[in-house]
Design goal:
Layout lengths: L13 E5 L6 H13 L5 E6 L19 E5 L4 H12 L3 E5 L5 H6 L4 E5 L6 H15 L1
Parallel strand pairs: 1-2, 1-4, 2-3, 4-5
């Protein structure tokens, strides 16, 4: 068995996984976080290979040039993601808007993993609309 006493002494390397197609509010938050973290730690980002193929803004235009980017095809994303993790060897995986993959969690159980789920923007508007409809019906 390997001695893991120096595991906490390794330098921090963060990898963010963002598989959204567009650059909306949740991606803007992620980019702001990544651009701040690149000043202190090495940071890599795994994104869809077709993220800039749409007519909307692309996340690639807003990332700091020092960030390492892994473009992953949407069809075989688990295989390519496992390959990117094995090559880059992060000490922390940060999932954005997707739940942690059980397959990757089992394979890379030693890597600290964070899953961030953002809320929808119109949620408070829908609640207000429902409450006003309920008050009208009374």
């Amino acid at each position: 068995m390997k001695n893991n006493k120096n595991r906490d002494l390794r330098p921090i390397r963060k990898m963010h996984v963002i598989f959204s197609e567009k650059y909306l509010n949740s991606e803007q938050i992620a980019v702001a976080l990544i651009n701040r973290q690149i000043n202190d730690y090495p940071v890599a980002v795994c994104i869809r290979s077709d993220c800039d193929a749409y007519y909307s803004r692309s996340i690639l235009n807003y990332l700091d040039p020092r960030v390492e980017i892994y473009r992953i095809p949407a069809e075989l994303r688990i295989l390519y993601l496992i390959y990117a993790i094995m090559v880059w060897r992060p000490s922390l995986l940060h999932w954005h808007n997707i739940k942690t993959s059980p397959t990757i969690s089992l394979i890379f159980w030693r890597i600290t993993q964070i899953s961030t789920q953002y809320t929808r923007q119109n949620l408070s508007f829908r609640r207000t609309q429902r409450m006003s409809q309920n008050s009208k019906s009374k």
